[in-house]
Amino acid sequence: MRVARHGLWLLLLWALAACSPPPLVQQQSYVFGTLVEVSVYGAPEAKAQQAIAAVLTRFDALHHQLHAWQPSELSRLNTTLAKGAHTPVTPELAAMLRDAQAVSAESNDLFDPAIGNLIALWGFHADSPQGRVPDAAAIARWVNAAPRMRDLHIENNVVWSDNPAVQLDLGGYAKGYALDEAVRILASRGIRNALINIGGNVIALGQHGDRPWRVGIQHPRKPGTLATLDLHDGEAIGTSGDYQRYFEAGGRRYCHLIDPRTGWPASGMQSVTILMSGEHAGTRSDALSKPLFIDGAARLADHASRLGIADYLAVDAAGQIHVSPAMKARLR
After folding, report:
1. How far apart are CA 119 and CA 141, in angstroms?
2. Which CATH architecture has domain 25-65+184-328?
3. Global model pTM greater than 0.85
4. Does the pLDDT at position 11 exceed 50?
5. What is the enclosing helix (H) or strand (E) of 40?
6. Do the beta carbons of residue 305 and residue 295 sit within 8 Å?
7. 68-161: which CATH topology?
8. What tens digit of pLDDT does each residue of 43-61 get?
9. Structural domain boundaries of the chain?
10. Which of 53, 69, 136, 331 is the most exposed place for a label (fewest CB within 10 A)?
11. Would you say 306 and 107 are in contact if contact means Cβ atoms under 8 Å apart?
12. Helix axes 281-295 and 91-106, enclosed angle (nearest 10)
C-alpha cells in the first residue's frame, strides 16, 4: 500500500511538472552601444533560445548596417551625400529613410537625423565623448547650413541630397526600429510572450504569465527607478535622457541630444519617457521622445498633444516631474 501511494505521488509530481509553463528564458548582449536583454516566457527553452538568437543576430546586422562613424551602409551613403552623388541603397534603408523623413516633418524638424555633422562636432561620433565644447563659429556654420531630412530625395532605392551638409545619424531611430523587428521575428517563430529591452527602450509581446510585463523607468539622477509601469501586448516605451551619453565641462552637462535650431545640446530636460502602442510602436516611441526632450518642459503638453502622445513622464532640468493624466493612471 505504501508503494502504491509513493507511485501515485510520483505520478502527481510528473503531471504537475508536465502542466507547468516552461521557465522564463533570458539572454543579454551589447548592441547599439548599450545593453540589450530579450526575455521569452511560456515557450520551450530550446525554441525560446533559437528565437532569441535570431533576434540578436538581426540586431547585430542592423548595428553594422546603420553605424554612423564606422564602415557601414549608412556611412558609405554619407560619403556620397557630401559629394552630391546619387547612391543606390538597400530597399530596407530606403524605407527607413522615408519613414524618418515623415517623423521629422511631423516633429517640425526637431527629430532630425540629418545633423550628423553637428553630432560629430560635439564628439559623440565616438565610443566615448571627447569632453570639450566645440568652437562657436563651427557650430554656427553647421546650423546655418540647415541640413534637414527634407533635403533627401529617395527614388527607386536611390538616395541623393540637395544639401551637401546632410550627414545621417539614425541613432535616435535604430533602437526603436530594432524593437519592431524583434517582435516580428519572435512572432514569426511562434513566440507569444516576450519583452525586449534595448537600453531602456522596451516593447512587450503578450504578457508574463497571468499578468502584464512590468518595467521600470530609470531615474535620471539617482540609482534605481523613478516609477514602474505595466506594459501590455504591443506597447512600447521610449526614453530620451541626458544621463547615458554626455560629458561635463565648466560645471555644465552636455548630452548627445542636439537641438538642430541652435546646434547645442538640449538642456531643458533630464529625461522624457513616452508610451506608444499600435503599428511601429517601437520606432515611434524611440523617435518621438526626442522632440519632446529637445523642446523642453514649457511646451511639453502642447507638443505631446500635437504628436498624438497621450502618455508621457518627464523630468525637467530642475528635477521637477511632469506626468500626463493618462500616464499617471498607469504608473506605480
Report:
1. 13
2. Roll (3.10)
3. yes
4. no
5. strand 34-40
6. no
7. T-fold (1.10.3980)
8. 999 999 999 999 999 999 9
9. 25-65+184-328, 68-161
10. 136
11. no
12. 40
Neighbours of 58 (CB within 10 A): 16
CA-based nearest residue to 130, from 245, 247, 34, 242: 247
- What amino acid is encoded at 7 in this protein? G
Distance CA 307, CA 20 (A): 44
CA dihedral over 74, 78, 79, 80, signed as positive or negative: positive
Cell 502504491, located at residue: 4
Three cell numbers, residue 286? 524611440
Specify whether the CB–CB gap between 291 and 108 falls below 8 A: yes
Question: String of b and e for 141-176 (b: at least 16 CB within 10 Å)?
Answer: ebbebbbbbbbbebeeeebbbeeebbbbbbbbbbbb
Separation of alpha carbons 193 and 79, rounded Å:
42
Measured from the Cβ of residue 17, the count of other Cβ atoms closer than 10 Å reads 8
DSSP assignment of 207-221: -BTTB-EEEEEEPSS
Render pLDDT for 75-104 as a digit per residue (tens, 0 to 9): 999 999 999 999 999 999 999 999 999 999
Please state, in angstroms and rounded to a whole number, the distance separating the CA atoms of residues 100 and 92.
12
SS3 264: coil
| Closest among 118, 107, 67 to 308, alpha carbons compared | 107
SS3 state of residue 267:
coil
Q: How far apart are CA 205 and CA 196, in angstroms?
A: 8
CA-wise closest residue to 280 among 203, 198, 192:
203
